[in-house]
Amino acid sequence: MKLARRRPGASWRWRAGWHGQARSVPSPNVGVRPVGVAIDLAVVHSISLPPGRYGSDAIERLFTNRLDPQAHPAFAEVAGLQVSAHFVIRRDGALLQFVALQGRAWHAGVSHWKGRDNCNDHSIGIELEGLEGRRFAAAQYRALAQLLRQLGRVLPLREVVGHEHVAPGRKRDPGPGFDASRLRRRLRGSGLVLAWMTPK
Fold it and tell me: Regarding the domain delimited by 14-195, which CATH topology (the fold level of the hierarchy) does it fall under?
């Protein structure tokens, strides 16, 4: 997969699929995308480890297969999972990147969107640090909108969906605490369509 040609003034933002201002934490949980696939979907998730607690390095440890199942009772059931996302946005808006854009992160699982299965093949996974159904921080909306606009400069992104949209009944994140109208205002003029505003 080739990234689109960079626009003038955007050269500092991406380096071989890595965001120039994100903290890079490469994950081993990555695959190869199908040949010729267009990365046209962004999937928004929510995650916090332990649930409802923020600011630890547990998410990084989970995505790099280093989470100690003995460190907290909530870690026992997830420590053995091999999962990842392209990005994590912390509560303060700080950006972490685990997988290069051209890599296939393991974030959506069994999924389907508008006639296509296996959304990992053609999507970018973005995790918001937060508890499913709870509210997210203002800094996260700013960082998410900025990231989506920057992604749109190098990828043919068309839609932004929640994990709940591509895996209904199985996943419910980011949930009702996610203010899609707030993100929509910040993305005005970007050309991106939010699943929260349109029928599936």
Answer: Lysozyme-like (3.40.80)
